[in-house]
Each structure stands twice: as C-alpha cells, then as structure tokens.
Specification:
Shape: globular
Order of helices and strands: HEEHEHEHHEEEHEEEEEEE
Radius of gyration: 19 Å
Largest sheet: 6 strands, mixed
Strand order of the largest sheet: 1-14-2-3-4-5
Low-confidence stretches: none
Strand content: 25-35%
Structural class: alpha/beta
Helix content: 10-25%
Distance between the termini: 75 Å
Length: 281
C-alpha cells in the first residue's frame, strides 16, 4: 500500500509539474479559404474561451499580449470567461483592456449561464464595451469592396431562457435559419462543441470551447483523454473539424486548470485568418 501511495504522489506531482510547465497560453494559428469572401479579402479573427477568471496576473498579461501580437480585426469570446468560483473584478479589468485592441463580441458559456449573477456578468461585459450576442445574430457591413460579416451567438443551454438540450437546439434552428439567405461569411459562437445541430445550421465557421483540449494528452493519442460532458476520449476536444463546407474550431481554453490537470496540453489563444477566394463578377 505504501508503494501505491508513493506512486500516486509521484503521478500527482508529475501532473502538477506538467501543468506548471505549460501554464502560459500559446498562440494557435489556422488559415482558411472561403468563397463567402471575395478574392483579396482577408479577415483575422482571434478567439478566446475558458479563461475561467484566470487568477494569475502574469498569465492574464501574457494572454492579452498574444492577442495584441496577432493584430486581429475582431476578437471573439466563446464562454466561460468568468468562472463563478473566483472574483469577477480582475476578469472584468482584463476584458475592458481587450476593447483597446479590436472590437470584441461574446457569447456566454455554462459557467456564466448557471451563475445566479448572470445578469450582472452580462452587464459587466457590456460595460467593458463588448457586444454580447444573446441568442441572436448581427451584421457587420463590409463597406465598398468588402463582403458583410454575420456574427451569431447563443448562450449555453444552462441559461434560464432554455428548458434543456432539446429546446436549446430547437431555438438555435429557429434563430439562425434565416442566415441561409445572407451573403458574406457567417460565424457562430456556441460554447459546447458536441451538438450535431451545428451540421444543420447555415453557418460557415463555428467557434466552441468547453472541452479544455481533453485535459491530458498521451503520446500516440491524437485527442485528449477526458472532456466535460463527453467523457473519455472525446471526439471534439480541441482543434479544427470539418463538416462538408463548414469549419468548426474548438478552442482548448486559455487557463491552466489544476484539477484535473492539463498535461502536454498548454492553454491557447486561437488566431484564424480567413482569405477570400470568390472571384468578383
């Protein structure tokens, strides 16, 4: 028994060390070509999810600097930016500084939506100059020579306006089906990555989080070991996935969670460059 105790302690120490080594977020870049934009158009999106009220000031500064270095046109927040178990103030200060880099748009995740202070957190985001997409979509006009951009966001299914997963998916179909008639790139923010309803929606690019990259990455294993709600060996824990012409990007989260620890799975900020390929005419 004593030997098992030493082994467990050693494993825990190794996991904690792995988390400490990879505690600072990395910048993960993707490049996409889309016929929803004209040839020559370029859009740089930075995406952040699962900050979970990161308590370390140095890590928050590092994340902000990664975003600044990416030089985004738009910053997107995909939920669980606030945690509910940690103070809000430092997170709000972090968010208020993002607006100095680029316009910020956000949808809430499960940690915010099940928080009894949800209304207050919505107000905090708006106070920081963030456009909160609360079960809706908006149009950002492209101007002369540029295509319009459609941004949609839905709050997590734990939000009080929904009555379980089925109602959440039904409302998503109702809200976003009109996007099928729109010209330009169509983007959806939705925190959870595993709903099959995404395949049905008339959107081109989906951003999710929630799965934390599968927490632990083992040698020879393409994905992570465990994700919330998906269990062991999740199918969409982090990375880029394709459904026909649709692209689904699942962020691995920007904070280092101590339990369960992140092992060989550093936090990340996602930068996506979308280049147009539609010829004018």
């Amino acid at each position: 028994m004593k030997g098992w105790g030493y082994a467990a302690a050693a494993a825990g120490a190794a996991a904690a060390f792995a988390c400490m080594v990879s505690r600072h977020a990395a910048l993960c870049r993707y490049q996409l070509a889309s016929d929803r934009l004209q040839e020559g158009e370029r859009l740089l999106l930075v995406y952040l999810s699962d900050l979970h009220s990161e308590p370390d000031a140095g890590r928050r500064r590092h994340i902000r600097e990664l975003i600044r270095q990416a030089k985004p046109d738009i910053i997107l927040l995909g939920g669980d930016i606030y945690d509910g178990r940690r103070p809000d103030g430092k997170t709000s200060a972090f968010l208020c500084r993002l607006r100095d880099i680029a316009p910020v748009y956000a949808a809430m995740g499960n940690h915010e939506c099940r928080n009894p202070r949800l209304r207050f957190l919505r107000g905090e985001m708006r106070r920081c100059g963030i456009t909160l997409l609360q079960d809706e979509y908006i149009c950002l006009p492209g101007g002369e020579g540029h295509s319009p951009l459609w941004l949609g966001g839905i709050e997590d299914r734990e939000a009080p306006q929904f009555y379980g997963r089925c109602h959440w998916e039904t409302r998503m179909r109702e809200i976003f089906s009109p996007l099928g008639e729109k010209n330009g790139l169509r983007i959806l923010l939705s925190h959870r990555p595993f709903s099959e309803v995404y395949r049905e929606l008339p959107v081109d690019l989906i951003f999710s989080g929630h799965a934390h990259g599968g927490q632990v990455h083992l040698p020879g294993l393409s994905g992570g070991v465990y994700a919330p709600d998906e269990g062991l060996f999740p199918a969409r824990a982090g990375g880029m996935y394709r459904y026909g012409e649709k692209t689904h990007i699942v962020g691995r989260g920007a904070s280092c969670f101590f339990f369960p620890p992140r092992v060989n799975n550093p936090p990340e900020v996602v930068a996506v460059e979308v280049c147009g390929k539609r010829q004018a005419g």
